[in-house]
Predict the structure.
Amino acid sequence: MAAICEYPNGVILKTCEPWEPSVIDPYGLQGLIADMKAVCALHKGQGLAANQIGVLKRVIIFQDNQGQMQSLVNPEILELGSETSTAMEGCLSLPGLQVKVTRPTEITVTGLTENLEPVTLVSEGLEARCIQHEIDHLNGVLIVDHQGRLNRKMTLDKWMKLRKKLDRAEMSYLNRELKRAA
Ligand SMILES: [Zn+2]
Protein backbone atom coordinates (compact mmCIF):
# COMPACT_ATOMS: atom_id res chain seq x y z
CA MET A 1 0.00 0.00 0.00
CA ALA A 2 1.14 3.53 -0.77
CA ALA A 3 2.78 5.43 2.06
CA ILE A 4 1.62 8.88 3.10
CA CYS A 5 3.99 11.74 2.27
CA GLU A 6 4.53 13.85 5.34
CA TYR A 7 5.22 17.56 5.55
CA PRO A 8 7.45 18.99 4.11
CA ASN A 9 8.02 16.24 1.53
CA GLY A 10 8.37 17.87 -1.91
CA VAL A 11 5.24 16.39 -3.50
CA ILE A 12 2.83 17.84 -0.97
CA LEU A 13 4.23 21.34 -1.51
CA LYS A 14 3.60 21.18 -5.26
CA THR A 15 0.54 22.13 -7.30
CA CYS A 16 -1.08 19.07 -8.88
CA GLU A 17 -1.91 18.74 -12.57
CA PRO A 18 -5.47 18.08 -13.73
CA TRP A 19 -6.37 14.47 -14.39
CA GLU A 20 -6.23 14.05 -18.17
CA PRO A 21 -8.32 11.08 -19.23
CA SER A 22 -6.50 10.91 -22.57
CA VAL A 23 -3.13 10.28 -20.97
CA ILE A 24 -2.39 6.61 -20.60
CA ASP A 25 -1.61 6.10 -16.96
CA PRO A 26 -0.66 2.67 -15.67
CA TYR A 27 -2.18 3.58 -12.30
CA GLY A 28 -5.70 4.19 -13.64
CA LEU A 29 -8.13 6.61 -12.04
CA GLN A 30 -10.30 4.07 -10.26
CA GLY A 31 -7.24 2.22 -9.02
CA LEU A 32 -5.84 5.46 -7.66
CA ILE A 33 -9.10 6.31 -5.88
CA ALA A 34 -9.36 2.78 -4.44
CA ASP A 35 -5.79 3.09 -3.16
CA MET A 36 -6.49 6.50 -1.64
CA LYS A 37 -9.58 5.14 0.14
CA ALA A 38 -7.62 2.18 1.51
CA VAL A 39 -4.76 4.38 2.78
CA CYS A 40 -7.21 6.87 4.30
CA ALA A 41 -9.21 4.13 6.05
CA LEU A 42 -6.03 2.55 7.41
CA HIS A 43 -5.00 5.86 8.99
CA LYS A 44 -8.58 6.73 10.04
CA GLY A 45 -8.51 9.93 7.99
CA GLN A 46 -11.49 11.95 6.82
CA GLY A 47 -10.05 12.65 3.39
CA LEU A 48 -6.95 12.52 1.24
CA ALA A 49 -5.48 14.24 -1.80
CA ALA A 50 -3.59 12.25 -4.46
CA ASN A 51 -0.31 14.06 -3.85
CA GLN A 52 -0.37 12.84 -0.24
CA ILE A 53 0.45 9.42 -1.70
CA GLY A 54 2.89 10.86 -4.23
CA VAL A 55 0.59 11.22 -7.27
CA LEU A 56 0.61 14.80 -8.55
CA LYS A 57 -2.92 14.71 -9.96
CA ARG A 58 -6.01 16.69 -9.01
CA VAL A 59 -7.93 13.87 -7.33
CA ILE A 60 -9.39 14.00 -3.81
CA ILE A 61 -11.47 11.84 -1.53
CA PHE A 62 -13.50 13.25 1.36
CA GLN A 63 -16.00 12.12 3.94
CA ASP A 64 -19.51 13.38 3.23
CA ASN A 65 -22.01 14.41 5.89
CA GLN A 66 -23.44 10.86 5.87
CA GLY A 67 -20.03 9.42 6.77
CA GLN A 68 -19.40 7.96 3.30
CA MET A 69 -16.10 8.43 1.46
CA GLN A 70 -16.63 10.27 -1.83
CA SER A 71 -14.21 11.18 -4.58
CA LEU A 72 -13.86 14.18 -6.84
CA VAL A 73 -11.61 14.54 -9.88
CA ASN A 74 -10.34 17.96 -10.98
CA PRO A 75 -12.42 19.68 -8.26
CA GLU A 76 -12.96 23.40 -8.51
CA ILE A 77 -14.68 25.67 -6.04
CA LEU A 78 -17.33 27.71 -7.86
CA GLU A 79 -18.61 29.62 -4.89
CA LEU A 80 -17.69 30.22 -1.27
CA GLY A 81 -20.40 31.15 1.23
CA SER A 82 -19.97 34.40 3.14
CA GLU A 83 -20.36 32.75 6.54
CA THR A 84 -17.22 31.22 8.07
CA SER A 85 -16.50 28.89 10.96
CA THR A 86 -13.36 27.96 12.86
CA ALA A 87 -12.47 24.43 13.90
CA MET A 88 -9.48 22.27 14.72
CA GLU A 89 -8.16 20.32 11.76
CA GLY A 90 -5.69 17.48 11.58
CA CYS A 91 -3.90 16.19 8.51
CA LEU A 92 -2.47 12.78 7.65
CA SER A 93 0.62 14.58 6.33
CA LEU A 94 1.10 16.23 9.73
CA PRO A 95 0.19 13.36 12.09
CA GLY A 96 -0.05 14.36 15.73
CA LEU A 97 -0.79 18.02 15.02
CA GLN A 98 -4.07 19.90 15.13
CA VAL A 99 -4.48 23.54 14.23
CA LYS A 100 -7.37 25.99 14.14
CA VAL A 101 -8.54 26.82 10.63
CA THR A 102 -11.23 29.29 9.59
CA ARG A 103 -13.09 28.44 6.40
CA PRO A 104 -16.36 29.29 4.64
CA THR A 105 -19.15 27.08 6.01
CA GLU A 106 -20.78 26.48 2.64
CA ILE A 107 -19.26 25.90 -0.79
CA THR A 108 -20.34 25.01 -4.29
CA VAL A 109 -17.83 22.73 -5.95
CA THR A 110 -17.67 21.16 -9.37
CA GLY A 111 -15.61 18.31 -10.77
CA LEU A 112 -15.83 14.82 -12.22
CA THR A 113 -16.88 11.53 -10.69
CA GLU A 114 -14.54 8.54 -10.88
CA ASN A 115 -16.39 7.61 -14.09
CA LEU A 116 -15.49 11.07 -15.40
CA GLU A 117 -19.06 12.36 -15.32
CA PRO A 118 -19.46 16.06 -14.45
CA VAL A 119 -20.89 16.77 -11.02
CA THR A 120 -21.71 19.88 -8.98
CA LEU A 121 -22.10 19.75 -5.21
CA VAL A 122 -23.47 22.24 -2.75
CA SER A 123 -21.82 21.29 0.48
CA GLU A 124 -21.81 22.53 4.06
CA GLY A 125 -20.44 21.77 7.50
CA LEU A 126 -17.76 19.15 8.02
CA GLU A 127 -18.03 17.94 4.44
CA ALA A 128 -17.41 21.44 3.04
CA ARG A 129 -14.46 21.84 5.42
CA CYS A 130 -13.03 18.51 4.33
CA ILE A 131 -13.37 19.31 0.60
CA GLN A 132 -11.63 22.67 1.10
CA HIS A 133 -8.81 21.02 3.08
CA GLU A 134 -8.26 18.46 0.29
CA ILE A 135 -8.41 21.03 -2.53
CA ASP A 136 -5.82 23.06 -0.59
CA HIS A 137 -3.52 20.01 -0.82
CA LEU A 138 -3.84 20.01 -4.62
CA ASN A 139 -2.44 23.54 -4.55
CA GLY A 140 0.37 22.65 -2.16
CA VAL A 141 -1.37 24.36 0.76
CA LEU A 142 -1.46 22.76 4.22
CA ILE A 143 -3.19 23.67 7.46
CA VAL A 144 -0.02 25.40 8.74
CA ASP A 145 -0.33 27.83 5.82
CA HIS A 146 -3.64 29.06 7.26
CA GLN A 147 -1.94 30.13 10.47
CA GLY A 148 -0.64 33.55 11.35
CA ARG A 149 3.13 34.01 11.65
CA LEU A 150 3.48 33.26 15.35
CA ASN A 151 1.16 30.27 15.46
CA ARG A 152 2.78 28.89 12.34
CA LYS A 153 6.20 29.13 13.95
CA MET A 154 4.91 27.32 17.04
CA THR A 155 3.39 24.57 14.90
CA LEU A 156 6.56 24.15 12.84
CA ASP A 157 8.67 23.98 16.02
CA LYS A 158 6.36 21.29 17.37
CA TRP A 159 6.48 19.41 14.08
CA MET A 160 10.28 19.36 14.01
CA LYS A 161 10.20 17.70 17.42
CA LEU A 162 7.42 15.28 16.49
CA ARG A 163 8.84 14.18 13.18
CA LYS A 164 11.82 11.96 13.78
CA LYS A 165 13.10 11.38 10.27
CA LEU A 166 13.71 14.49 8.21
CA ASP A 167 16.00 14.31 5.23
CA ARG A 168 18.39 17.13 4.40
CA ALA A 169 16.03 18.86 1.92
CA GLU A 170 13.13 18.73 4.41
CA MET A 171 15.32 19.99 7.23
CA SER A 172 16.57 22.96 5.23
CA TYR A 173 13.01 23.74 4.05
CA LEU A 174 11.75 23.75 7.64
CA ASN A 175 14.67 25.84 8.87
CA ARG A 176 14.02 28.36 6.11
CA GLU A 177 10.31 28.50 7.00
CA LEU A 178 11.14 28.95 10.67
CA LYS A 179 13.53 31.79 9.90
CA ARG A 180 10.87 33.43 7.74
CA ALA A 181 8.40 33.20 10.63
CA ALA A 182 10.84 34.51 13.26
ZN1 LIG B 1 -4.44 17.05 4.92
Notes: The pocket of zinc ion is lined by residues 91-93, 133, 137 (CB under 6 Å).
